[in-house]
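Lab meeting, action items carried over

1. Structure of the two-component assembly. Owner: GW. Status: complete.
Input record:
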Amino acid sequence: MSSTRTITVELGGRSYPIVIGRDLLGGGFDLGPHLAGSDCLVVSNETVAPLYLDKLMGNLSDCVVETLSLPDGEKFKTIETVSAVLDKLVSCKANRDTTVIALGGGVVGDITGFAAACYMRGVAFIQVPTTLLAQVDSSVGGKTGVNHPQGKNLIGAFHQPRVVLIDTATLDTLPDRELKAGLAEVIKYGAIADRAFFGWLEDNMPALLEKQADALAHAIRRSCEIKAEVVAADERESGRRAILNFGHTFGHAIEFHQGYGEWLHGEAIAAGMVMAAELSGLNDSDSGRLRALIDAAGLPGRPPAVGSKAMLNAMGMDKKVLRKKLRFVLLDELGDAVVTAEYDKSRLQQVLEAAD
Amino acid sequence: MSSTRTITVELGGRSYPIVIGRDLLGGGFDLGPHLAGSDCLVVSNETVAPLYLDKLMGNLSDCVVETLSLPDGEKFKTIETVSAVLDKLVSCKANRDTTVIALGGGVVGDITGFAAACYMRGVAFIQVPTTLLAQVDSSVGGKTGVNHPQGKNLIGAFHQPRVVLIDTATLDTLPDRELKAGLAEVIKYGAIADRAFFGWLEDNMPALLEKQADALAHAIRRSCEIKAEVVAADERESGRRAILNFGHTFGHAIEFHQGYGEWLHGEAIAAGMVMAAELSGLNDSDSGRLRALIDAAGLPGRPPAVGSKAMLNAMGMDKKVLRKKLRFVLLDELGDAVVTAEYDKSRLQQVLEAAD
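Predicted assembly:
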C-alpha cells in the first residue's frame, strides 16, 4: 500500500485537506472527524454506486446514512436533478448537522455540492471523487453548479467541501476514455503553471495511460497542489483563478454544441487548449509540444465541425465574458498563463475556422 | 422632505449601506455608484411594478435595463419561480457585470436574491423593499431563498446586497393589513433587543398605524440598526443571529399549515411571539405588555386551530432544529432574548394547545 499524502487548501476558517492515497474509501482514512454530526446523505450514481457505495458505507458505520443514486451523465446536470437531491434531503428530515457526501465523478460532485450549498442555505459537504477528472479538478475549489439549456455551469454556488477524499484505487475501474479525459486537465496544470511538470508528463504519459500507480499518484498530487494554490489566492475567481479555465472558453462552446455528452468535458478541453494556444501565438516549439502531448494522451487536438459562427455565438454566453468583452486565458509560454481581453481578433477568427 | 439616514451593515469587504428616506426611488438617492456595470435586471411583481417601476427606471437612466414581473404571493416563492428569473438572466445574456435589483416585498426580494446568488455563482444584487416587513427585516442581512412544499425557506443562500434602498414613500400605497404584518417584526426587535424601543412602540402605535412619516421612519431606522448589528456579529447564523427568529419556530409552523398565504408572515409571527413568550415563562407584566402591543397593532395573539400535534410535527422540519433537539428563542425579559434547547416540555405542550 502506497503512502497517503495530504494537501491543504488554505482558506482561513474554511480550509480543508485533500487526502490522496490507495484504499482510503473503506476506512484507510477516517471520515468521522470531518462530519458535522451523525447523519449523512451519500449521493452517487447508477454506475459508481454498485462499485463503491458499500465500501464507503464501511467508513460511515457509526452514522445514520441515507443514500440517493442519480442517473449517470452530464445531461442530468440540471436544476431538476438538484431539486431531486433537495427533495431527498427534506424527506429524510436532514438538518443543519447533516453531512452530504458526493461519491462519483464531476457531475455527481457538482450537483451534490450545489444541493448542499442551497439546503438550509448551506450544510456540510464532502467530496469523494472517483474519476481522474474529478480528482484533479472539479472536486477541489468549491465550484458547484449545474448547466442551463443555454450555457454550461451558469447556475451554481461556491461551496467548499470539508474534505476531498481521493482513493486512487477507484481509478482501477475507470474506463480508458474517461482516464484520458481526466489527463486533459492534468496537462492543463502543466501548461498554465508548471513547465517542469509538463516535461514530466511528456516522459510519463505511457505510464499514466497504463494506470501505473506511482505515476497516477504523482500526477494527481501535483495537479491538486497547483489547484489548491490558485484557489487559496483567489477563491471566488475575481482574478487569477480564471487561469484554471485555460481551454475552457473554446471547450464549453464545443460542449454546448455537442449537447453536453457527445464529447466528454476533458475531450472538449483538450481541443480547446490547442485552440487557446494558437490564439496565444505561442512559439512553434511549445505549441508543438502541447499538440504532441494531447495527441500522446489519445485526446482530440481540434474541434468537431460545429461551425465557427456557432462557436463564437456560444462563447458570448461564457462566464468569462466580462463587460461585454471576451476574455481569454492565453499562454506566454508553456507553464505561464495570463487572463486577458487583449488578443488578435483576426487570429481568433482563424482559430475558430478549425470548427468549419 | 425629511432627512435621509444611512446605516451600515459591517461585513468587511461585503459591508453595505441601508439608506432610509422619503422619495429616494426616482433619484433622491443615486444607485449608480452601487451598480456592477451598466446592465441591470429589475425583478418586481404584478402589484408593485405598476406603482413604482417607472420611478425606479428614472434612477437607472444611464443603464441598459431589463425587467421581469413575477406573480404576486408567497405561494410563488418556489424553485420554479427562481428558475424563471434565471431563464430571464440567460435570455438577456446577463453576465458578471449585471446587477439584479429586487423591487417589491419580501417574496420578491427572497426569490430575486437567490437567483442573483446562483446565476454565474453570484452576481451583484440590490434590494429596493416596498413593504414595511421587507424594509425592516427581509431585505437586510443577506438571507435569500424559497420554500419547499415541506418547509419554509428550506432552499436558499446567503447573498448580501450591495445596498438596501428604503423609500418610505412606498408605504403610502401599502394596504393596512400588510402594514400591520410589518409591525409584527418591528415589535420583535423591541422584544428581543431593546426594551426602551418597545416602550416607544407602546407610545407610538397609533401614529404608526396612521402612517405618520416621522414615526414610521424612526421605527424602520431602529429596526434596521438592531438587525444590522446582529447580522454583523454573526452573518451566517452560527449563534446569536438566531434571536431574530423569535416567534418564527411557531410562526413557520402556522404558515406551513395555512399553506403559505392565508395568514401573512407577520401575522403568523405575531401569534408565534405570544406563544414563544409563554414558553419563556416571562413575568406577567412583560407578558401582558407583549400581548397588549400585538393587540394594539391589530395582530393575532393566538394561532389558528390547526391542531397542536400538527404544529409540533411542522416544527420538526424547522431550520432551527439542531442535532435533533428543538431550539427556541426565548425571552428572559422584554428586550433580552436567548437561544436555547432548555425549555419546559410540559409548558410547550400547553402552549401548543392554543392551536387545538
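2. GW to write a short summary for the group page. Key points so far: Residues 184-355 of chain A form a domain with the Dehydroquinate synthase-like, alpha domain fold (CATH 1.20.1090.10). The two ends of chain A are 50 Å apart (CA to CA).
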